[in-house]
Amino acid sequence: MTAPHHTPDLFALSEINGPVLRPGDRSYADEVTGFNLAALHTPDVVIGATGPDDIVTALRWAKATDTPVAVQATGHGANFPIDHGLLINTSRMTDVRTDPATRTATIAAGAKWSDVLASAAPHGLAGLCGTSTDAGVIGYTLGGGLPVLGRAYGYAADLVRSFQVVTPDGHLRETDPQHEPELFWALRGGKGNVGVVTSLVTELLPSPASTAAASTARANTRRLCSEPGRTGRAPSRTRCAARSRSSACRPSRRSRNPCAAASGPASRSPGPATRPRAKH
Ligand SMILES: Cc1cc2nc3c(=O)[nH]c(=O)nc-3n(C[C@H](O)[C@H](O)[C@H](O)COP(=O)(O)OP(=O)(O)OC[C@H]3O[C@@H](n4cnc5c(N)ncnc54)[C@H](O)[C@@H]3O)c2cc1C
Predict the structure, then answer these.
(1) Is the distance from CB of 28 to CB of 87 less than 8 angstroms?
(2) What percentage of the chain carries pLDDT values higher than 70?
(3) Residue 130 belongs to what domain range?
(4) What is the pLDDT of residues 3-28, one digit of tens each?
């Protein structure tokens, strides 16, 4: 196990409701390990956030101690593992609330697409997920979010109505097109560089288009998560991406374009497809 670069004063972090762990602590390994076993974070301290308050406390502490911060929900996008600083694990924050009246979902920082689909499907709704339902909604959306139905509906970030985010100064902010619009713009494609998102509100789409895409993503996820590399050795990201792409884009019997086949009439109706794209 990597030795810590320094011994941080963790007193202020005792307000955090979730675990606060350092290398050598029991559960430290579980707390830092995500999906991509080839890119393992080894921070000086990891916290398991249970809500926005924990993230506010963590970022205020990081600012006061000049400690670099990274975030992990699932570890699907852990391209640059950290070897010092603070890691905020959001995987406990999985709450999803679907509002069928407004056709929106409020999605917490650690929720995966599978959590959103489980909440939205009973209302005949689904979100613009990508090729895997195991990916985190926030990390995916902060990168723009290129959905299976991207040709019909554009980027998932275009459907976001608002974010709740803790900026590096430790302030919890609500941002939407009317409130702090530049922050809102930066979050829709700016990845994790401007703060730690605690939740977002996104529009949902009606079936059957979105549920067809969700079925594809679910099938991909089953295939991906059952492959030997997941538990035996670290999966090659290249292989995973190729695997997902090949199954997502395989032509259906009805059409050579599965996205067009899946979108059906909904893709021709006015709605998200007619929205102006976000500036990326
Ligand atoms: C099998 C597979 C299929 C995929 N398919 C698609 C696809 O179809 N379309 C597509 O667009 N992408 C796809 N991706 C890419 C995926 O969207 C990114 O890897 C995304 O970053 C995953 O986010 P995560 O939260 O699951 O991962 P994590 O590794 O937990 O997080 C990745 C990064 O996201 C940022 N982040 C996460 N949570 C927060 C937060 N709360 N606040 C601030 N920053 C945060 C951080 O920078 C973090 O380092 C796929 C990835 C995999 C592994």
Answers:
(1) no
(2) 71
(3) 96-206
(4) 445 566 788 898 999 999 999 999 99
